[in-house]
What does this fold into?
Amino acid sequence: MTIETKNLTFTYPGTGFSLRGVDFSMGPGACAALTGSNGSGKTTLGKLLCGLLKPQGGAVLFDGEDTAKWSLGRRGQRIGYLFQEPARQLFAPTVLEDLMFTQELQGISPGEAEARAMALLARFELDSLARRSVLTLSRGEQQRLAICGLLLNKPEALVLDEPTTGLDARRKAILAGVIREVLRDGISVLLISHDAAFVKANAQREVRMEQLNQAPLASGAPDKSADSLGWIEGGSGEGAGGVHEN
Amino acid sequence: MKTDPRVTLLFVLLLSTAGVVLRGALELAPVLLSAMIAALWGKAPVGRVLRRLAGLWITLVSVTALQALFSGDIRTGLLTGAAVLERLVILMLGGTMLAAYPGHALVQAMIQLRLPYQLAYMVSVGLRFVPQFSESFKDSLTAMQLRGVDFRRLKMKARLRVYTYLLMPTIAAGVQRAQKLAMAMELRGFGAHEQRGSYAPLHMKSKDWLALAGVIAWAAGLSAIEVLWRIAI
It folds into this structure.
């Protein structure tokens, strides 16, 4: 799926922070990273892509189709969003049940739902934890379970918001493996991250938020001239920040 | 300038008690009127609260309609429904009046009303958790939809099941936040000393004494009217 934004505008009321004229695109099967200083609007753009926030101007297009009137449920079938705090998107008491109940709501039989859930858990090395309470999982395990929950919908793209926060080197390596697995399925991944080493090791392209946002700096907002990670894709002018992977 | 929070606390306590104890729509009407006048006079953020609770109004009107439907004849039903609505608005206005004060002023008021400090502080902290619960619930609802659950297509039974699932992350987030807060408070020496000073003790001014007299007169008048009403019927 190709994800595009056209002249996207969004302002948080009463804060002075805004995104203006954001043009961004990401082709199918790509792994792009959205980087930038704190408060530069990375998470805001991620949320706008997934429909968690509604743009005040411009459009978010999936395969060229304007998604403005799509319900969150419909978007969720095409794109998954991993929250900074993965516990927010775990709902059932046990690991297995968390993957089963959404399937059952979609009319899938319990037997088939369990088989699908167990297959996903095995793929992400969580099968031994199937009967465990989701509350007793480590952050990395919660993250992988949340990704499993998103993958059940067979989305075409995933937005991972600061996925390395609170993970040690070993768990980061596991997460990198998960991302490779996801990419192998042809799912695009947008990494929103501060973690320069992780981005460099796992993303094919990097886009700095400061280059996408055409809004003037609000007081206290990050400096657009802040040092970048050094291998930025795009530049000023038309198509700045575009990430085209084919 | 706002009235001393102790006077407002007393008024809200009496108001809520009247709202719960009194049964009929006609009996509750003067209480509701008093609550409205007091909220406007105290510059309580009524408009803001009403806007925030916009979705609740549908529920309130539905509850009223249900009360009216299941209470025998239509007149009795409508009066019962109106009483429910009045009671809810009275309680809501009471809360809104307290929301006009900063948290530390309410804690200070409770301490000077001889409530143990720990208890007063916990009440204040508890109130701060309400918007966080609401935000957490909204986030979970969104996350659930992004997992492909389309609420519009679900039958009522399935929808109710989904709501029970939404409670788990909300409660878990609340408990985790409470644990962190408790730890942070311990580290800052909460309750380490038996004696405590106050940064900004409250002092009753003449207008506060006048307001207090007004509240007492209001409560006495309301009680007298209630007694006379009951004798009359």
Remarks:
- The CA atoms of residues 135 and 163 of chain B lie 15 Å apart.
- The interface with chain A takes residues 136, 139-140, 142-154, 158, 161-162, 165-166, 168-169, 172-173, 176 of chain B (CB under 8 Å).
- Residues 103-202 of chain B form one domain.
- Residues 156-187 of chain B form the longest helix (32 residues).
